[in-house]
Specification:
Blueprint: E1 6-11, H1 13-30, E2 36-42, H2 46-54, E3 61-71, E4 74-83, E5 93-101, H3 105-116, E6 121-129, E7 142-146, E8 152-153, E9 169-173
Parallel strand pairs: 2-3, 2-5, 5-6, 6-7
Antiparallel strand pairs: 1-9, 3-4, 8-9
Pathway: Purine metabolism; GMP biosynthesis via salvage pathway; GMP from guanine: step 1/1; Purine metabolism; IMP biosynthesis via salvage pathway; IMP from hypoxanthine: step 1/1
Pfam family, one: Pribosyltran
Keywords: Cytoplasm, Glycosyltransferase, Magnesium, Metal-binding, Nucleotide-binding, Purine salvage, Transferase
Length: 174
């Protein structure tokens, strides 16, 4: 299949596999004494979430929420929740699982939402962290990679809904 844009590989499948396995071990340690509800932020986190939950050696519960603040390559500012969680988070530890922590707007809104619903603690696991784009003071508690300000795709991340199926992370050359 030929794509519309050129994509230059930045992070290989092997590097991704190694980083996700390492994070899974860390989360297994950190949550061994208290259960956690993992909430994947759709659509981008679905590949990362699937691999990450299999790398965690604990009983966990999981749910999903669909929220976005992007249209194409541009952050539109407002966070739009399209699909909400079903599990009750009252009194529970919540781990928000996101593909990329960019401006921070989406995760800020979702963290505040989980806390308002009574979550005991809310942490963030971002597959990639892009601190140079931060518009809100928020940090990932866990991340696999820190990247510069580039538009990346693959491993669940998209450009106009394409490229999510790539097994590596690449920069889109527009």
């Amino acid at each position: 299949m030929e794509y519309k844009h050129k994509v230059v590989e930045m992070i290989s499948k092997e590097q991704i596999d190694e980083a996700v396995a390492k994070l899974g071990k860390k989360l297994t340690q950190d949550y061994k004494s208290e259960p956690v509800v993992m909430v994947g932020v759709l659509k981008g986190s679905f590949v990362f979430m699937a691999d990450l939950v299999r790398a965690i050696d604990l009983p966990i519960t999981m749910d999903f929420i669909s929220a976005k603040s992007y249209s194409g390559t541009v952050s539109v500012g407002a966070v739009n929740v399209k699909m909400d969680t079903e599990l009750d988070v009252d009194g529970k530890n919540v781990l928000l699982v996101e593909d990329i922590l960019d401006t921070g707007r989406t995760l800020h809104v979702l963290r505040e939402t989980m806390l308002a619903r009574g979550a005991k603690d809310v942490k963030i696991a971002a597959f990639m962290d892009k601190p140079s784009r931060r518009a809100i003071d928020i940090k990932a508690d866990y991340s696999c990679f820190t990247i510069e300000d580039r538009f990346v795709v693959g491993y669940g991340l998209d450009y106009d809904e394409y490229y999510r199926n790539l097994d590596y992370i690449g920069e889109v050359i527009l």
